[in-house]
Amino acid sequence: MSDTLLSPSDLERADALVLFGITGDLARKMLLPALYRLTESGKLTVPVIGVAAGDWDDDALRGHAREAVVAAGTDLDEAVFARFAAGLSIITGDFADDATFARLRDAVAGFGFVTHYLAIPPSLFTVVAAALAAAGLNRDARLVVEKPFGHDLDSARKLQDELSTHFDDDHLLRVDHFLGNRAVESLMVSRFANTLLAPIWHRAYVDNVQITLAEDFDVADRGSFYDAVGCLRDVVQNHMLQVLAFLAMDPPSAGNARAQGLEKWRVLHATRSMDPAATVRGQYDGYRDVEGVEPDSTTETYFATRLFIDNWRWAGVPFHLRSGKALAVTATEVVVELREPPLELFGGENARTPPNLIRFRIDGDTGIRADLVLSKPEGNTGPMTVPVGVDYAQVLGRQELPYENILYGAVAGDPESFAFFPAVLECWRIVEPVLDPADPPLPYARGSWGPQAADRLPGLRSWHEPGHRLFDDDRVY
């Protein structure tokens, strides 16, 4: 029992990881490569027991894992993979069959504490949780569930209630893989560890904030999944609002996940619900031709909106969010635009001094960049913008995959990379007014920046477009 609300949770370290859905798409693309990397770094020292349907055996799983690691672009080290493969095994059977869980109980017998990780469709979360409890596998165990956690506010509450009957809140972790991204965590570090930035992170200095999560690829072979979810539920309600929370929260009063979660809740609680009049939904040309997509689908592949945070730090500062598929570039970037100087001294009659921008690239070529204003050497030609900053890969080396941090936290009992449930509820509350609107989304061309209506969001002067790279791209300064 914690002494205070802000005391850190004392979570157990697991002696085995049970991975439901180990033969699925998420495991192949993300989880198995991340587990290999954890083995390489010495952080994964426990066996991994997969549970899946089908007729797989241990050798088939190990061959599949090798293919997944190679497909992820990893330079496979045979000695490392041998260590990884030695700890891999699989149990097959239907998740609705008690015999499957009886075999699992035998497989984990002798392990002191077990983490059950559900990389399966959300419709199966409660089925598996109940089956684990019926087999006594919820004792000395932790449950980790993938996103999405519900599909609206009521369903999130219901899912929490159902899972809580089998696993209490100290033994239930909710995945949002953006929280495992070190560049997202660096938003908080950059703000609170640098007194250079802390004083200006305030409505007195910040004019507006833009958060962009753009992808230049389409839904590919995920039509059936995506058409039932859409951009808002897929990335805005979770990933983008988590980024907003890191960006706008006040500093936590203690260095642990519980204190951090409370500050996230506070800033999200102060965030107004989305206004349909300040929201644009789009759908890229050709989306309805994708296999698995309904021919008359009104699912959005693009979403843009304006938010306000009604607290002392941010009152009156607009936060513009946008995300979409089949856009001009792939980039996840935050742009903080500072207020212009009170007097125009350098721009001249035909040009104004451009504002300072602080950019955080939190996916791909991650880093932080400030756009500063200098005088051009020709004289009398107005000021110019010069980027300065840090490329994280050059300075810090390889950044862990987000799922390395998620899986390590799941095994080690570190809740920092997981979503705080009261904050999850606030995220659903914020998006609720714009879920499933009656109006169809606006069409937009592939390779564009989405519907032109998004350029006319209330209060928006212009979007700051991310380049292909944070530095050394083709933008003109």
From TrEMBL:
Keywords carried by this UniProt record: Carbohydrate metabolism, Glucose metabolism, NADP, Oxidoreductase
Residue ranges constituting the Glucose-6-phosphate dehydrogenase NAD-binding domain according to the UniProt record: 18-184
Domain of life: Bacteria
EC code(s) of this entry: 1.1.1.49
SUPFAM superfamilies listed in its UniProt record: Glyceraldehyde-3-phosphate dehydrogenase-like, C-terminal domain (SSF55347), NAD(P)-binding Rossmann-fold domains (SSF51735)
Glucose-6-phosphate dehydrogenase C-terminal domain mapped to chain residues: 188-457
Reaction catalysis annotation: D-glucose 6-phosphate + NADP(+) = 6-phospho-D-glucono-1,5-lactone + NADPH + H(+)
Binding site for NADP(+): A53, D94, F95, K147
InterPro entries (UniProt xref): G6P_DH (IPR001282), G6P_DH_C (IPR022675), G6P_DH_NAD-bd (IPR022674), NAD(P)-bd_dom_sf (IPR036291)
Positions of substrate binding: H177, E215, D234, K325
Keyword NADP listed: yes
Catalytic residues, chain numbering: H239 (proton acceptor)
Pathway(s) annotated for this protein in UniProt: Carbohydrate degradation; pentose phosphate pathway; D-ribulose 5-phosphate from D-glucose 6-phosphate (oxidative stage): step 1/3
Role, per record: Catalyzes the oxidation of glucose 6-phosphate to 6-phosphogluconolactone.
Stated family: Belongs to the glucose-6-phosphate dehydrogenase family.
HAMAP family reported for this sequence: G6PD
Name the UniProt record assigns to this protein: Glucose-6-phosphate 1-dehydrogenase
Naturally occurring in which organism (per UniProt): Streptomyces lancefieldiae
Organism lineage string: Bacteria, Bacillati, Actinomycetota, Actinomycetes, Kitasatosporales
